[in-house]
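All the exercises in this workshop are built on plain-text protein records. An example says more than a description, so a record of this kind follows:
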Amino acid sequence: MNPNITFVLPFLAMTAAGLPMASAAISYTAEGLLVTQNFNALPAVNTTLVGTGVVGIQVALPGASDWEVARRGGSATTDTAINVAYSTGGRFYSAGSAVSDRAVAALGSGTFFGAVGTSLVNNSGATLTSFTVSYAHEIWAVQGTGTQNAAEDRMAFAYGFSGGTATAANYLTNSSLIALADLDAVSPASNMVLGAASGDNPNRQRDGNSAGFRTLKTATVSGISWEPGASLYLRWSDSDSPGFDATQGIDDFAFSAVPEPSVWISVMVGAAAVLLPRRRW
């Protein structure tokens, strides 16, 4: 193991009864507001993500309580096991090379693969017609195979709105969300270690903050109608890829949304007029 790279699974905040707690949606209160999350508060403790033994149960991500994780599938029916260090088992990770610099990461396997995401409620008072998402994609372990068949590993991004079958309780696994490949987290086939004897032979760990394993991604979605009071759902979905899966992280997330350009210009002009000094007669 590279001693400079540690992986710690996040703990789950629980009620006194030990039940999973869902996160609260982010309140989006103004046009153009920038919402960010660096995941640096993810805790380094060993525990179990209570509720993740059941497909579709969404639980809050500790240290980033406005984000959630959920099981999408896998043969296991127990809650996700916790490792303090990287392993080849499917689970979520708090990945990073320093305690103060973390990323939320996922590793899929036959026993577990999941999804991570967040929801926002439009409390701006305006209908927003486009949004922009950016984040740092980090690869903390590349994929491997015992054969000579190289393949990519992908965490697929999708978005959706309330008012249909997607809700605050199911958006991490709901099939109605809209795919947007531009924001997928992809470890390319060229990263795959061929002829791997096992999941950790040879060592597939990488420094996700280093050049070649950290990529900034951004995309703008236009032509939408995000009505006041409606929710917008954002998620990344992992899967069980062939061979030994990559561990891929989401870091330095940023989000903003605006109305139609004509409306936005009117708002800005109005704000400027208020700020201009009044002429004295």
